[in-house]
Amino acid sequence: MSRLQIDTGAKASKWRELAYSAALPLLVLASVALIVEVILVALGSSSSGDVTIRNCLVTTIVFAAAAATLLAGVSRPAGMRAPWLVLGLGILSYACAFLVFFFFQKTLTKFPSPADFFWLAFYPLVVAAIALLARGQRRSEQLGISLDAAILALAIAALGYELIFNGLINVSRASDLVGGQLSYSALDFAVLVMLVLVCAPSRSKVGKAYIALGTGMLIILISDILVVKEISDGTYAPGTLLDAGWPAGMLVLAFAPRLGTSLERVTALRGRALYGAITISFCLAFGLLVEEGLLDRNPVVLTLTGLVLCLILIRLIVSVRENDRLARDNEGIISAAGEGILRTDRKGRLTYANPTALEMLGYSLPEVLGHRAHALIHHTRPNGGAYPASECPTGKSLREGASQRVTDELFWRKDGSSLAVDYTSAPLREGGRIVGAVIVFDDVTHQRQMREQLRRQADHDSLTGLYNRRRFEEEVSGQLSYAKRYSRPGAVLMIDLDSFKFVNDSYGHPVGDRLLCDVGAILSATVGETDVVARIGGDEFAVLLREAKETEGVEVAQQLIAATRAESEPTVGASIGIARFDDTDERTPDELLIAADVALYEAKEAGGGTAVVHTGQRGIALTWVEQIRSALDEGGLSVYAQPILDLETGQVAREELLVRMDDSYGDKIPPDSFLPAAERFGLINEIDLFVLAKGIELVTRGASIAANVSARTLTDPRYLAALERALETGLKPSCFNFEITETAAVANMGDAQQFARRVRELGCSLALDDFGTGFSSFTYLKHVPAQHLKIDSEFIRELERNPADQQLVGAIVSIARGLGQKTVAEGVENVSTLEMVRELGIDYAQGFYIGRPAPTSGARATRSVEASSKVARGWEPVR
Q: Which of 615, 589, 614 is nearest to 601 (CA)?
C-alpha cells in the first residue's frame, strides 16, 4: 500500500468520525424540541403564535432526525452506508411533508394533497432501507425475503385496513379523505410485518437497530390510526398530544443507525413455514377480495388483496424455479463428485448411480437400475469366497438404521475385475421411516498410487527434480551389472559448477536455486533419453551414460561444458571428471564414483572448465581417501579440544572438538590436509560421527563441547539419531553446541535450516562458523537460526591495529545483539587482541592465547578452566 493510499484512508476515517460525532448534537436538539412540544401541548396554549411555534418545533424535530440519520450513514464503512442513507432520505421526505403542510397547505383538504406525496414517498424508502439491511445479511435469498415480506405485509395491511375502516371508523361519516388517510395505517402495517419477517428467524439474536426501527414504526402506526379515527368522528383538532407522535416516531428511527444490526440468520421462508404463510395470506386475500367485491368494493382493499394474490403466484413460481435449481445443483454436485455414489430402495435395489460410480464400475445407468447392489457389485470377498448378502454392510444399514463404514473391501466391475474401495453405507429416511440407503465409495487404488508416488519422491532432489545421490548410486549399480551381462560399456560423469559460490553471494539464494534448476534442465536436454542425470549435493551433478564407447564420454562431457556455459544465466562454467566402465570392470559402484570424483578433482585443480578422464591414476585425492579409510578402520583418528572462554565470567564455556589424523610415522596431520578429500568422497559423515561419539563421552565426564558439522552430515539421519540417544540417557542438551560453516549453509540452505530447527528443538545450541567470509554473510542470519556467531579469525588477527576490522567487528556485534545472538572471536593470539575483543563487546574468545588444541582427556576440562581463569585476570596464556 502506498503512502498516498494510507493518507487517503486516514483522512476518510477522520471524516467518518466527525460525521458520527456531529449526528449526536442533532439528536439531542430533536429530543429537546420534542420535550418542548409536549410541554406546550400540555399547557394547552392555542394562540396563533403558539401554534406556529409548535409547527416549527415539529418540523425542526423531523429535519434534525433526517440530518442525524444521513450523517450516521456517511460515518459507516463502505458497503454499510446504503440502508441508513436511504432511511435518512425517507425521514427527510417526511420532514418536507410537514414543511409543506404547516406553512403552505395548512389544512387537510382532500387526498392526495401536495404534502401527501412527500409522506407517501417515505414508505418505499423505508422499505428499501429494510431490504438493504436484509440483503446485507444474506444476499443469495433477497428475492425470497422480499416476496415473503410483501405477501404477508400486504395481506395483513389489507386486513388491518378493513378492520379499522369498518370497526373503528364511523362509516356513515367516512369520506375519501378518511380512506386516503387510512392508507397510511395500512402502509405502517406493511413495514412492521416486513420487519417482523426479517427478524423473526433470529429470535433473541436481533440487533437493537431493528428494535428501534420497529418501535418508531409502531409509534407512527398508532398516531396514524388515532388521527384517522378522530377525522372520521369529526373530533380531530391540531395542537393536541397526537401531533407529537409522528416526530417522536421519526426521532426513534434516527437512533437506529447508531445501534447494532447483527442477526443470527436471515433467510426466506421454507418448508412448512412457507406453505403456512402462503396459505394464510391466500385465504385472507381471497376472503377480503370476495367480501369487497360483493359488498363495499373499497378500492384500497381490492388493490391490496389483488396484489397479494399476484405476489403469491410469483412466489410459487420463484419457489418452483428455486427447487428446480437446487435439484439441478444437487444433481450436478453429485455427478461431479469424485466418489462413487449409489442409491438403493428399501430392498437394496439400485435406483441411482452417479457418473463417477458408473465409470469406476464399467456399467451404464440402465444396466444397474433395478438390480440388487450386493449381487451386482459386492458378491465376492477379496479371497474369492462368496459374500453372503446377510453380512453385507449395506443390508445392515437398511435393517439396523445405522451407518456402516468399511475399508479395504472389493467391488466388482462389469468386466469381472476387482476394485479396491473404502465405502460408507447410510440409511435414507422419510418421515422417520427407512426408505433406502446411500452408498458412497472411493477407489483407494489411486491413494495407494499416491503413496507409492511419495515413496518415489524420496529418490529425487526436491529442488531440481533430478535423481538424488542415493538413487543415482542404485542406477550405477544396476548399470554395472547390465554391462557385465550384455558387454555394453558406459561412463559416469561427475560435474561441479565453477564460480557457483560467487553467484550465490552476489545474486542471492533464489537466483542460485534457479540456476541449479536451469543447469539440471540443460544437462538433461544434452544427454540421451536413456541416460541418467542426478544432483548429488550442492552444485555437484552426475551423469550416467548407459552405453558409451571410449570416446563418447569425452564428447558428451565437452557438450555439457559448452551447453552449461552458453545457456546458464548467470553464466557459470563446469568441470567434469569421467570414469569409464565395461564388462571387464570389477569396481564397485562406490569405487567407480570415487574414480570419477578423482578425475573431477584434477579438472578443478587444472583451473576448471575442462574434462578429465580417470585412467587409473591414483592422484593426491585418492591417496587421501585410502589414508582416511585406514584411519577410520584402524583408530588413526584422534580428537583434540580447544577452549572457548566466556569473557564475562572468565570461565571456559565449552571446548571445540577438532579432529586429527596420524600419518605413517605417527605424526599428527592437520585437518585442512585431509578433510577436503573426506568431504568430496563421502567420508566426512563417518568422521563427524566419530567426533560426536567422543563429544558425548566428554559431556558424560562433565564438559561442554562444540562440534563441527559438515554439509553432507546435515542430511545424515544417523547423526541426529546418535545425539537423541545420548540425550535420552540424561545428558544436558545445553552442553552440546554445533557449528555450521557458511559454505555448508550456502550449499545446503534448506538442509541447514532443518538441521538447525531440530537441534534447537532438542535444546542444544547452534553456531554459524567462519562468519564474515562470504559476500552475503548477513543474509544467512535470517535463514539459519543460530544462537552464536563465530567471527572469522581474518577479522581478529590484526584487530588492535586495523580500524577497518574494528568497524566491521563492531557492526557484527551490534547486529548479533539485535538478533539475540552471542558472538565468538576466533584467532585471539595475544593480550592486546583479547582486550580489544572485550572492548567491542564480544561474548566469547578462542585462540592460541586462550588455549591451544590438546588431546582430550579426563583432566582436560579442569586444566582449561583453571588456566583460562588466569587469562581472564590478565596473568598468562594457556600453552
A: 614
